[in-house]
Design brief:
Helix content is 33%, strand content 26%. By secondary structure, the protein is an alpha/beta fold. The strands form 4 sheets. A 5-stranded parallel β-sheet has the order 5-1-13-14-15. Helix 1 packs parallel to helix 9.
Length: 252
């Protein structure tokens, strides 16, 4: 069995803020608004890929956020959400996977508590502080780059990673990486080969853990990648390029 672990936002789907042309379909509605889209090219490619490869969306999104998405390619049997801490099997939270995730992060809990106290007092925080599924911290801040830098100086970085995506700030246990989730799922499903595709710092460990990692043009230089990686040309939309790359081979 070949498994495709694929990040969602800006890898497979794009918000209404991104110009991906008019040939697109809506895949997410929030508060009555169409907010995320899939190109028609990617949509057609995904349907063909799904015939031979197990597609596993692998996202930092919460369960609620993930459940808003409908890729319109038929049932998705497995998805990894909450940065891999939660496995959804046929739409239901797999309890043993989740309990294992909670055990894996035990040693990071003191660092998470330090981060929580730091962010609760930080005047730059402009959103509630959430402890997502009791796995990692999430909030939104002004000056996110500085907040992340200060958190990294404050915390034991052997225990936690700190990321930001624009104004969003995350404090994540080291053992709750997408890469760890890919390793766990490989054993869970008895995969013969693993492909991974992603576009951000969150995805580096996942790309490293896969047999074949696919990233956007310039990714290797941006993040100083030192492992084998297939970069797209940047001549088209990333989701179109990566899905066409997988279809070309199917040898994966």
């Amino acid at each position: 069995m070949t498994v495709l672990h694929i990040d969602l936002d800006n890898t497979l789907i794009y918000s209404y803020r991104h110009d991906i042309g008019n040939a697109k379909i809506n895949v997410e509605i929030y508060q009555g608004r169409e907010i995320s889209f899939l190109t028609k090219t990617t949509h057609e490619n995904l349907k063909k890929i799904k015939e031979r490869i197990l597609i596993v969306p692998t996202s930092t999104r919460s369960i609620e956020q993930y459940n808003r998405i409908n890729l319109q390619i038929g049932d998705i049997s497995h998805a990894l959400v909450c940065n891999g801490g939660v496995l959804l099997a046929d739409g239901k939270k797999e309890p043993l996977w989740y309990q294992t995730s909670l055990k894996l992060i035990q040693e990071s809990l003191p660092a998470l508590d330090t981060a929580r106290r730091f962010l609760e007092k930080d005047v730059r925080r402009k959103f509630e502080l959430r402890f997502i599924e009791e796995l990692f911290l999430f909030t939104k801040c002004d000056e996110p780059e500085t907040v992340v830098e200060e958190l990294r100086e404050t915390l034991d970085t052997n225990m936690t990673d700190v990321f930001h995506n624009k104004e969003k700030v995350y404090v994540v246990p080291r053992k709750l990486s997408k890469g760890k989730a890919v390793e766990r799922f490989r054993e869970y499903i008895k995969a013969d080969k693993v492909i991974a595709a992603g576009d951000s710092e969150f995805d580096i460990s996942m790309l490293r853990a896969a047999d074949i990692g696919i990233a956007p043009h310039g990714f290797r230089q941006e993040y100083s990648i030192d492992f084998p990686l297939e970069e797209m040309s940047g001549s088209g939309i990333f989701s179109d390029e990566l899905s066409e790359k997988i279809l070309e081979g199917m040898k994966y």
